Amino acid sequence: MADDGGLSKFQKRMKAIPKAAREAVQPALATGGYEIQEAMERLAPEDTGDLVGSIAVTLPGHATPPYSMPGGSYVVPENQVAVTAGNTDVRYAHLVEYGTRLAPAKPFFWPGFRIARKRAENRVKRAISKAIREAR
């Protein structure tokens, strides 16, 4: 066998990185999703509490609630997490967020997302970096 100068060992490590990163990022995604959910819940108006209770985190492979904002029901792909507002009982999340002709807007969804997004992104980046370092 010819000496490849460590190339085969390097290639083996490179192949292990994507799998390790996918596995390591799942807890960070979930934690980030729950932090975004908490930020939205703090900003949501609490007339009856139904809207706050309808804000949900959906993990990969599961379906978001029907009639949820944004986009309704769909299955969350791998390496993603979805935070939604609304369900079959609370179909008015978008009306609260954007307002109507008769009711002023009370934004909670997108401001909550923008407040917590950076911290969630940093958590995911740290998890990926750590997985790559440990895959060596």
UniProtKB/TrEMBL annotation:
This is Phage protein, HK97, gp10. It comes from Salipiger mucosus DSM 16094.
